[in-house]
UniProtKB/TrEMBL annotation:
Protein name, UniProt field: WD40 repeat protein
Record Pfam families: PD40
Domain of life: Bacteria
Native species: Novosphingobium anseongense
């Protein structure tokens, strides 16, 4: 997701203090100490298979045979058969105001994030959740709930977790202000009543955020859905924001810090089968700048403090590109990620989808 992208474009709107929260992280040039491992030679984007020259935010199907992605923010959603590389447009014949994310539900339907009306200044802060049935015959079916940024989806059942800004931003306020505003967090199951999807058994979770977190983005469930893994956007320290990986037990609310290190940016994105490790956007937050990120593997060990190992290098000197949004295939053998163009006003948007076999 890259919480902190686009700092320069928001200075006037957010002020210098808020803008620091939107700074991006840097790429590591040397081996880091304190629990971070680095390989001597890492594969990069040139070593990956190009699946699409456009689009981003990839998501693997439950069987790992297909990949869904968005063509662009507020565009259409697509699906690729990974064996044949055939691509189909999932939403070309459906009325909508633009898709921002698409994920698979365990039952084979799609979970879509999109605005209810034509997108405006802060539409991204108040998107809604929809279900797109796998037959593509029923259109986007609303779940009647707003969402801010990512949604965690269980691999086992139609269980989701999300965050919503409360109260809503005022008209004209930029959507990035949502990172500094109060939010509420929920879990619910997507059930079907007379064939119509609805949110059932909705519960508020994490009524009080950990002291270290200003905002969290739910990312994945693990340990048989007993724990929620998320990215924690922390309070500034010496002018630098802190992005770390945490988990919370849904029953009891016990928090675990899986990775936090002074000056290190670590934003969790995908989770491996069994929930024993995750892919992380990683880099050094040495200043309020927009350097590229690497892709790391983080052990999600009991008690926290897992080892963070770099597995894919980010953009190289002279290239105006980043890599981000890495997700792991259901068999744990592949990682899909997106390419994005640095300084693109579409923060977190993709400019191509890639596939790389993990060592």
């Amino acid at each position: 997701m890259q919480f902190l992208r686009g700092e320069g474009r928001l200075m006037a709107a957010l002020g210098k203090t808020r803008a620091a929260l939107l700074a991006c992280a840097g790429v590591v040039a040397a081996v880091l100490s304190g629990g971070v491992h680095a390989e001597t030679v890492l594969p990069g984007i040139d070593d990956a298979t190009v699946l699409s020259e456009f689009g981003g935010r990839p998501a693997f199907s439950p069987d790992g045979k297909r990949l869904a992605f968005v063509g662009k923010t507020y565009g259409d959603a697509f699906e690729m058969d990974l064996a044949t590389r055939r691509v189909r447009n999932l939403t070309a014949n459906l009325p909508h105001h633009g898709i921002t994310r698409i994920q698979y539900l365990p039952n084979g339907d799609f979970l879509v994030t999109a605005p209810r009306t034509s997108p405006g200044t802060n539409a991204r802060a108040h998107l809604e959740m929809w279900v797109l049935d796998r037959s593509l015959t029923k259109g986007l079916q609303p779940l009647g709930a707003q969402v801010f940024e990512g949604i965690a989806v269980s691999r086992k059942r139609n269980l989701v977790a999300w965050a919503v800004i409360a109260p809503e931003l005022k008209p004209g306020e930029p959507w990035q202000m949502g990172f500094a505003r109060p939010t509420r967090r929920y879990t619910a199951e997507i059930a079907y009543r007379a064939g119509v999807p609805v949110l059932a058994n909705q519960h508020e979770i994490m009524a009080r955020l950990p002291d270290e977190c200003v905002f969290i983005e739910p990312q994945d469930f693990r340990d048989d859905d007993r724990e929620l893994v998320y990215s924690c956007m922390g309070r500034m320290n010496g002018g630098r924001p802190s992005i770390s990986v945490m988990g919370t037990r849904l029953a009891g609310g016990v928090d675990t810090v899986y990775f936090r290190r002074e000056g290190e940016y670590a934003e969790v994105e995908g989770i491996a089968p069994g929930g024993i490790w995750s892919t992380v956007e990683c880099g050094v937050q040495d200043k309020a700048a927009l350097p590229p990120l690497d892709i790391c593997r983080l052990e999600l060990k009991a008690g926290g403090g897992g080892v963070l190992t770099r597995i894919v290098r980010g953009a190289e000197p002279g290239r105006a590109q980043d890599i981000s949004n890495p997700v792991v295939s259901p068999d744990g053998k592949w990682v899909a990620f997106q390419r994005s163009i640095r300084d693109d006003p579409d923060i977190g948007g993709g400019n191509g989808v890639f596939l790389l076999r993990l060592p």
